[in-house]
Amino acid sequence: MSNPESLATPWPSLHVSSHPAVLHKLAILRSTATEPKKFREVVRELSWLLGYEALADARVRPFEIETPLEPMVASQLADRIGLVPILRAGLGMVDAMLELMPTAQVWHLGLFRDERTLRPVEYYNKLPDSATVDLSLILDPMLATGGSATAAIEVLKRWGAVRIKLINLIAAPEGVAAVSAAHPDVEIYCAALDRGLNEKGYIMPGLGDAGDRQFGTGR
Hints:
By secondary structure, this protein is an alpha/beta fold. About 30% of the residues lie in helices and about 30% in strands. The strands form four sheets. Strands 1, 4, 5, 6, 7, 8, 10 and 12 form an eight-stranded mixed β-sheet that branches. Strands 9-11-13 form a three-stranded parallel β-sheet.
């Protein structure tokens, strides 16, 4: 369920969920009172809900089965799904997506943001030589400047990926604009589009550093 307000944005590729369960869980995620264990649980739950929406147009093919009463033609997933979590914060989103699509492949991509330039630096890439999936889902809780997301999309396109979607928990307008300008063919699914970035490149009001909050490493 996409937020009707997202239709008024300048980015047709952006889908902001308005599902009540998403809104409720997002409030828990944002709160400073939420400890790491609960934070990880809610990241997982939100990822499942957003993944459900992002996979609504995955392709299926006819599949013959037998019910207890009679044979019938059912549907079977036709797309090969690839999950690409951006290390390290994206790791918390993987298990939920595997619950949705147990046959999905998982390929890790390591990018970190240089705190001086706010530009992404690639340090880890476990993609095989050529694309082995039909639909790639990039998982990263926060879409801030858009630098890491844009870099990840470029890596996947060089790899040979054709259909790519980006799943974030929270996005900033600056990040959405950057990704949409560089890759207008990539759809973005998120739980909230926040106000913007502060001088340090953090999303406001946001939820802080998603990696630190998941793994209890915040200062």
